[in-house]
Amino acid sequence: MKYQHLKKQLEERKREIEEELEQNDHFGLNRGFASDTSSGELSQYDNHPADSGTELYEREKDIALNEHMEEELTDIEYSLKQMAEGTYGTCEVTGKEIPMDRLEALPTARTVVEASPNQSASHDSPVEEDVLRSTEEEYYTGGEETEYNEQNTYHQVASFNESSMTYEGSSLIDNHDGSGYVETYEQFASTGIEGYVGDEAVQFQRNVQYDQYMQEQDNIEEEE
User: Fold this and answer.
1) Which residue among 45, 69, 128, 199 is the one 20 to 30 A from 223 at the CA level?
2) Do 217 and 150 lie in a common domain?
3) Domain boundary among 88, 114, 140
4) pTM for this prediction
5) What is the largest CA-CA distance in the chain?
6) Per-residue pLDDT tens digits for 19-54
7) Is 43 helix (H, G, I), strand (E, B) or coil?
8) What are phi and psi of 222, to 5 degrees?
9) Within a domain: 208
10) Could you tell me if 126 and 143 are in contact, meaning their C-beta atoms sit under 8 angstroms apart?
11) What was the pLDDT predicted at 213?
């Protein structure tokens, strides 16, 4: 038989799946869906919500694993039925013979690669990426310095709240300079790991913010 080795492979895999589902009782799903039953607790009354959340997550994972294995078992049984009927290895869409290389890689294949229903990959992205993309455009100046920081993140998140999260004297991002620091010089002034130990230990980074700050100071002096 042309596909004898594939038949043996499918039968072995079928036996493995059936034994595993029997041993774990279909991932415990046959015991019922009550959270107290699955967790072994007589009552959920005194359980922390986080514990219940963990149990729910584990339950959902078991359901997904069980469905995946049952779907694989169904595909295997269908392929074995095709072998018995003599239709195995023929594309159900084009009628062409499925290449052996494809069957070796995927013994349950029903079509040639060109007729596979899983040809297109989804390019949908989470809506959050639109916010991140707009943020990058807003703060990018073409320089090598990192201009997006935790203050910027706070401002972005706070902008989605209906009520204000600020208080008098608090620091929010300044839309003019795009820094978000309490004081302007914090954009380019830095200290060592010990923190501030004196003026002589303060270092100034020659970045875009430093140049802007110095230019502003020169303008002030000229006006005076």
Assistant:
1) 199
2) yes
3) 114
4) 0.50
5) 98
6) 999 888 888 877 655 444 555 555 555 666 777 788
7) coil
8) -65, -35
9) yes
10) no
11) 83
Alpha-carbon separation of residue 87 from 25, 51, 78, 201 (angstroms): 34, 51, 11, 81
**100 is a domain residue:** yes
Given a cut of 80, is residue 138 above it in pLDDT? no
**Same domain assignment for residues 213 and 141:** yes
Q: Which tokens go with 111?
A: 């079509």
Structural domains in the chain (count): 2
Q: Is the pLDDT of residue 178 over 50?
A: no
Place of tokens 């359980």: 47
By residue range, what is the domain housing residue 213?
A: 128-223
**Would you say the C-alpha torsion 204, 205, 207, 208 has a positive or negative sign?**
negative
Q: Is 138 in the same domain as 104?
A: no
Q: Tell me the C-alpha distance between 147 and 74, whole Å.
A: 54
Query: What is the CATH classification number for the domain harbouring 100?
Result: 1.20.120.910
Q: At what angle do helices 128-139 and 150-158 cross, to 10 degrees?
A: 130
- Which of 74, 89, 114 terminates a domain? The answer is 114
Tokens of 180: 């978000």
Cβ-contact 221, 215 below 8 angstroms: no
pLDDT level of residue 220 (50, 70, 90 thresholds): confident
